Amino acid sequence: MEIRGPIELPARREDIVLETADELTLVGELALPESAPPVATLVTLHPLPTAGGFMDSHIIRKAAARLPALADLAVLRFNTRGTTSPRGTSDGAFDGGAAEQFDVAAAMEFVRERGLPRPWLLGWSFGTELALKYGREHDVEGIILLSPPLHRATDQEVAAWAGADVEVVILVPELDDYLRPDEARERFSTIPHANLIAVEGGKHLWVGESQTRRVLTEIVAAVNPGALPLPTEWPVA
Fold first, then answer.
1. CA 89, 90, 92, 96 torsion-angle sign
2. In this model, does residue 147 exceed pLDDT 90?
3. What secondary structure letter does DSSP report for 2?
């Protein structure tokens, strides 16, 4: 069976709730490798909910569907405040990235309580803003930014990562609607250790199986490179 599109590989999947410091309940899912303990954890932050982003945005959904089986990763995904998906609706209302700091904190507290190993923040579009603004407050091994628009994260918040002893991986689509590679190199130049990857032919939404595979490959290259190359068929021979 070819691994593509919405295929969901075996994993232990659990519907979860997160409790924020301002007393909201957020809905989500934790996906774990089916039989082995995870080697690392992806805490995913979805695109802008007012533009249709949610925990099922396709790259995040496919990471949860494939990477527990293919790369032994735990994948935590959830709806930020006021966001709806088939899993349900999280309490509260969208706050433009301000009160969402409590949502990030609730996810990281869940990771600590469950003893999930080696957490990384994986943000896409709006989710990259949350990772940049609030990720330094938490014990993470690194951050992975997909299609960062840099609309909300300030230059000072970006530059602050220069002093953080964590990995910073940035995937910038060649044909992005908001921030393309040349400008991204300039704006992220204040983080000397950042690994900025320009993706030829890529677009903001990473549509298509080839783009999905490229993104998932770069994620695994950062977090668990020993799992590469990612198989394209299941079961793996």
1. negative
2. yes
3. B
